[in-house]
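User: Please predict structures.

Assistant: First:
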Amino acid sequence: DYIAYKNAYKNYFITSTFEKVFTSLSYSHEMQMPYYTIAKTGMMRMGDRYSSNDYVRAKYKDIPFEQADVHIEDEHRDSDGDRTYSTVFRGRYITFELNKKFDKKVLVAIKNFNAENFDRTFKIVRLESSEFNHRFSVYAQDNFEAFYLLAPAVMERIMKLDELHNGKIMV
């Protein structure tokens, strides 16, 4: 049975691999990232339908994080009342608990990321790095926080993450 195999594989191999890397590990392939974890950021529309799985909450080098596969969709109805859905977001969603508290939000997205779903209170910010500006769009509620948060070393790490990642990223 495929489902039994998949469950056994995830419960044994993935958990044992995670335990070698992370501390304070909590993993469940069936559990969702709580809806409010994403909604409370106010960074994107939450659509009409939400699903998630492969939830992980752990620490990496004493930095708490949680992640899961997430799918957010909008519902549409045609003139006959037939229902269809379009994807707002589909991918791995990761949050980190940082030691510093920020008053405003800053969002960095690869240039071809679907920015129409972002919160409209964010304004586009251009940074000092032309390479970074060419690869990413930066949206912020406050320019000062964006410049403070996105120091050159942080921009380099985001660009490295993009090089290692096969897909679209948003930070």
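Second:
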Amino acid sequence: MTKPSIVFAHGLWADGSCFSKLIPTLQAEGHEVMASQHGLDSLATDVAAVKACLARVPSPAILVGHSYGGTLITHAGTDARVAGLVYIAALAPDADETSQSLLGKFPTTPVFDHIEVPDGRVWLKQSGVKHFAGDLPEAEQKLVYATQEVPVADLFNQKVEGTAWKSKPSWYVLATQDQTVHPDLQHFVSKRMKAATTEVTASHVPMLSKPDVVLDVIRKAASAVSAP
């Protein structure tokens, strides 16, 4: 059977290059791979961007979402072309929740003390990078800061329909040292969706700091949805 395609969805203060340590390996292993690029202007247009990528790869596909990207795959994943979902330190709101209301259920994490909103967009300060990606080498932390994509201030309060984890098999990479999406929140959403969960000692960006762990989870998801 042809291997499933992989479509990545990035979060805030990132772009598709945050999956650069995963994509070449998955391509070499025979997967068609795309990383959706989001303007972070509205939830609806970001979900549409993920679905546009789905249209560019063969079905079935696995959606892989990091952080806010988890919200995107939760909504986009109801598409019939999607066979499974992989969440990386990610949000996964229910139908009556927003990204913000879900974050509000758990203690505030340190990264949100290091943001500023000078022009209606939420910028990560340099002082916040250590709370976002503190287990990366300094040079990689500087790259994370320099390539950040910046969301509109009300992005996390927006809603669209669709809760894919209620009907699609799910896997979750839980970052135990996360200072952006609280580990308790990750425990909550991964348990609620009955995901196959892998814990990793990592910051908010395990796809960069522990790529082998994340790759292994994606491989397990791909194997599961490919099984006859």
